[in-house]
Each structure stands twice: as C-alpha cells, then as structure tokens.
Design goal:
The chain contains eleven helices and eight strands. It is an alpha/beta fold and 282 residues long. It has a domain of 194 residues: Vaccinia Virus protein VP39 (Rossmann fold, 3-Layer(aba) Sandwich). Strands 1, 2, 3, 4, 5, 6, 7 and 8 form an eight-stranded mixed β-sheet that branches. Strand 5, helix 7 and strand 6 form a beta-alpha-beta unit. Helix 2 crosses helix 9, helix 3 packs across helix 4 and helix 10 crosses helix 11. The radius of gyration is 18 Å and the shape is globular.
Length: 282
C-alpha cells in the first residue's frame, strides 16, 4: 500500500476554520444539492440508503470515526434518534459539530471525543451497535489497527460501514498522487486490501458497493461551485489555498473519470467480541 509524502502541509483544519460560514454553506448546497454539513464525498441520498444497513434503533449507539464537524453523524441521529459519539482530532471541527447538533435538536443525543485514530480508541469494548468511517481510512497510518479497534468496540453482530476513496484501479503518476494527497497523509490501497483487512479483524463482509460515480459527480459539483464563488473564496482562504483545492478537485475528477482510483463502500458484521490487540501485532 502506497503512502505518499505530500508536497505541502495542507490539512482539513484549514477547511474547518470557515466550515460554518454562510459562504461555505452555500458552496456545499450548490455542490451536493443538499447541505448536511458533510466534509467528504457523502450525500444525503447516500446516507438515507446507508442508515438501514446500520440496523440502529432509538436505543442504539453509533460511533463515527473521523467525524469532522459531525454533519453526517447528526443527520443519522436526526433520522434514527439514537445516541452517537463522534471522534476527531480537530477541536474546532468538534465544536462546530456540537453547535450543529444543538441547532438540529440532537444536542442531547451527541457526544464528541477528541482523539487520534492512529492510537487505540479510548472507548470500552462491546459498547456500540454500529460504527461509521466515511472517507477517513485512507488518512490513517495503520488501517488494520483501526479496523480491529472498530471490531473491539462493537457488540457481536454490530455493523461497521466505511468508505474508501483511495482504492487503486488503474495507473497513477507520482504527480497525481501528490496532488491527490493535498490534505496530508494519504494511503492508496490495492483492490482486495480492505476486504482482507476486514476478514483479519473478524468481520464478515456483507456488502460492497462501487461509489465512484457519485464521487465524480460530487467532485465536479464542488469544483464548479468553488469557481462560481472564486472571489469570495480567495478572500476567505487566500489565493494559494484556493488554487491547491481546485487542483485537488481536478485531480480527483481525472482519476475517477478514467477509473484509476475508486471509491468503495464496505459493510462488515462483527463476530465474537474482539479484545484490544487480539487481531494485530503491537
């Protein structure tokens, strides 16, 4: 699995800084068709389809790994009225998430935790009915450890749903890898890698869907929306950052259009309870 070293040090923190601004909301609305506070490739329509796969009820508990500003998480909480926990490294993103949940009458259902997904999760075993990780696994150093941690915190029979927008399905140049890794550490996985990782952690793969077409549509929409608001975004982000983000989206579009990188959705069902450290070394 390839781990490129980005040419610059851009991160999602720059995005979160202005995430709740009216301009950012308008760009998301134009890009996705519906603004649910997403910061990845997920759409409201996709989440509506995913919710039944999580098998959650009002008594359930949902964990969102790399939740960012909690947009998709609060969307699910609003639909199911279950309890949810969001984990992210960004204190600013989590603050935005708490505010969003309060505005949407989900404040009492949401708890957030600042933690690094490269470390063991600071959570008890067999605690959650479902775990989400939307477009985050490609930014984690040790994917096998994270998947094992998801297995550990799930109850037996719980569901783990994650998407990976970095599955290699064709040839990619070094320059494209660097442009695609604009947000920092990015790991591109070969086909079959995620399936083997799930199996090693004790999951049974129950669904796998290619969501590249949706990613391509969203990337085109985001690029166009940002172009339409170029002047305002350059004032907000600065011209260099604006251009980096445009180049990033153009690269995503090119790689997706020629099927060099795919976005795949996986749903795994946990088996017997997994103890910390049981399915990985170290």
């Amino acid at each position: 699995m390839h781990v490129p070293r980005p040419l610059q040090t851009g991160s999602y923190e720059e995005l979160y800084e202005h995430f709740g601004s009216p301009l950012a909301q308008q760009v998301r609305l134009e890009a996705y068709g519906k603004d649910i506070g997403q910061h990845s490739w997920v759409t409201a329509e996709e989440l509506e389809e995913n919710v039944p796969q999580l098998r959650l009820s009002g008594l359930g508990r949902l964990l969102d790994l790399g939740c960012g500003p909690c947009g998709p998480l609060t969307f699910v909480l609003g639909a199911v009225r279950c309890h949810g926990t969001g984990i992210d490294m960004s204190a600013h993103a989590l603050a935005v998430g708490r505010d969003r949940a309060a505005r949407q009458d989900c404040g009492g259902l949401l708890s957030v935790l600042r933690a690094d997904l490269d470390n063991p999760l600071p959570l008890l075993s067999n605690t959650f009915d479902a775990v989400l990780a939307l477009d985050v696994v490609l930014h984690v150093r040790d994917r096998a450890r994270l998947v094992c941690e998801a297995a550990r915190v799930l109850i037996p029979g719980g569901r783990f749903l994650f998407t990976d927008a970095g599955v290699i399905t064709g040839a990619i140049s070094a320059e494209e890898i660097s442009r695609r890794a604009v947000h920092g550490l990015t790991q591109f996985a070969p086909q079959g890698f995620n399936e083997r990782t799930l199996e090693a952690a004790g999951f049974r793969l129950i669904d796998r869907q290619d969501r590249t077409a949706s990613l391509l549509k969203n990337a085109i929409g985001r690029l166009a929306a940002r172009r339409a608001h170029r002047m305002e975004l350059e004032q907000l982000e600065g011209a260099p950052q604006f251009e980096r983000q445009q180049e990033y989206l153009e690269t995503v579009i090119a790689l997706s259009d020629r099927r060099a990188l795919a976005r795949i959705l996986y749903v795994g069902e946990s088996g017997a309870a997994t103890r910390s450290g049981e399915c990985y070394a170290g």
